[in-house]
Amino acid sequence: MPAGARPRPAVLLGSQLVFNVGFYAVVPFLATVMRDDLGLGALAIGVVLGARTFSQQGLFLLGGMLADRYGPRLLITAGCAVRVAGYLGLALAADLPGFLLGAILTGLGGALFSPALQSLVAAADLRARETRRPGRPSLFAALVLVGEVGAATGPLVGAALLGHGFATTALSAAGLFTAVGVALWCVIPASAVRAAASGAAVDAADSVAPLAADSDAPVARDPWAAVRDRRFLAYAALFAVDLLAYNQLYLGLPLELGRAGAGASAVGSAFLAVSLLTIALQWPVALLARRIGPARALALGFGTSATGFAAVALAAVVPPPAGSALAPVAVLLVCLTLAHMLVGPVTMELVPAFAAGRPTASYYGLLASCGGVAVLVGGSAVGALLDAAPALAWGILAALPVAAAVGLPRLLPRSPTAARAADAPPTSTPTRTPAGS
């Protein structure tokens, strides 16, 4: 790709910031709006949130393939347009079908623009890797930090706008995404990281492949290689527990805050706490993961997630003392945030080792798609149980990370390339992509 066709890192980082402000001004309040304004139960809320996540995560592979084929400029602007349509739908929705359609469109928009933006970041990070001093954060680390600033700002903006009605919040987010879509169309060159169908050009999704491409034998391009890789397929299926667990910040956490007597402002404060924890601890946690290695990091991360769910399950059986009703929710929030910070970067670093020189877009896409399926199926089931048997719901959610903690270390890549990739300093996972922008 010619130098003139390379978007500046500042443009990519600024885009992530704006995307997250718009996203987190709306999505954290969907459960509250559906419960209070539409009178929906936990099952319906779980279906809507699961469908939104699945429409993004489940189609991540498709979005990556389209970005490889048509270029990130078109996919980013198209994704912004689809998300604008989703926010308009949410603003106008007066019943469950309308809200469901709007939520699905917001997720589909993310499926289009997120992999395209990530491919540009991966290409920029690869170019900078040779000159980066050891121990310095990667461009992905900068991406997660600016994204978390947006994630911290978004709920505060959303909480302020919610006083004027949810429609005002959704319309404001639609205007924001319209502006950023037009701006990126003007700023990103049409030739940026565009791959021809023949594969002659270099696409950004392939740009991280050299991490695992030091074999002498050429590796054929196969967009379905990830699906045929049984070891990675099993890994992706188990790792989907992370997205299902993290999604409880959007489903279970608001419901538990409501049960404890907290209002919509508490939801905004909770997401602010998540952002502050991530900003403060993402890099130290990533360094910890590098020191202890991927197997132990995965076990520790999912064990931490299980601890958070166990605390809420216990509180559902043995109510906490007066004045400490929010303590189990606080434990859950901290544990889920720490676990996600720990296991996400480790897995993002291992993916190129699984790919072993093949294009990585399908591997990242499959990882996200498995998470989307887990959220759709698991979120709906958990939503139903949270109404009928909350202790059982939280108990099941505690058991799933335990299974992941035991199984994932046994599925790590076994090649020498994998060992080298696993020893590399972890980068930060694209900020809350599973449920985020």
From TrEMBL:
Gene3D superfamilies: MFS general substrate transporter like domains
The name this protein goes by in its record: MFS transporter
Record region (Disordered): 417-437
Example of a GO MF term: transmembrane transporter activity
Organism encoding this protein: Clavibacter zhangzhiyongii
Record field: transmembrane: 12-34, 40-62, 74-93, 99-126, 138-160, 166-188, 232-251, 263-285, 297-319, 325-351, 363-386, 392-412
Topology with respect to the bilayer: Multi-pass membrane protein
Compartment(s) of residence: Cell membrane
